[in-house]
Amino acid sequence: MTHDDVATFCASLPGATGDIKWQVDQVWSVGGKMFCVQCANPALSTGVSFKVADERFLELTDLPGIQPAPYLARHHWIRLDSPATLGADVLQDLLRQSYCLVRAKLTKQQRNALPPL
């Protein structure tokens, strides 16, 4: 996957919104909560960060090109050096899981306001 493929995939998830935070990061959120972050300018960085299930955190950070995400590792976020670090199917699955993990933590009222999965 490329930087643009990640953005297109994240935008396709029900109720996902994207915006620019901290002047340089493209952030994808659901219900106002982040589930994916990547540099808005791929010429500066091609890295992508997202939340993973607690039990997958150590497994994934042992792989080459994947490390704990700065500032967010304590919440089980990982950072890929590049979206190409993992195969497209694996990355899409992990991004979908990140979206679902964050969506599940929203209040019932917030979840009910979102389009169905």
From TrEMBL:
Task: Please give the SUPFAM superfamilies that the UniProt record associates with this protein.
Answer: YjbR-like
Membrane-spanning ranges: none
Q: Sorted alphabetically, which Pfam families does this protein's record hold?
A: YjbR
Which InterPro entries has this protein been placed in? Answer: YjbR, YjbR-like_sf, YjbR/MT2646/Rv2570-like
State the name under which the record lists this protein.
MmcQ/YjbR family DNA-binding protein
Q: What is the lineage of its organism?
A: Bacteria, Pseudomonadati, Pseudomonadota, Betaproteobacteria, Neisseriales
